[in-house]
Amino acid sequence: MECLNAILSNVRTLKKKAGEFSEKTQCVKKYASKCLSISKEIKVLNDKTQQHCANFEPRLKSVRKKLVDVKMKTGEEI
User: Its domain of life (predicted)?
Assistant: First the structure.
């Protein structure tokens, strides 16, 4: 009888630990899904941004060149 009680006690402990593990697993799945969703959003925004950067880059180079010219004329450090 003592052996049976010990086995039942171990079964209850295992059930409890299995339940806790299941809860943690569900939490991790939700977290992973959220991370994947955010990653996809970042990729979409990055793709949109790349096009804007490509359009803006020639203007930026021109402004940088003008800034260097002004600094050279005024004697400021570059």
Answer: Eukaryota
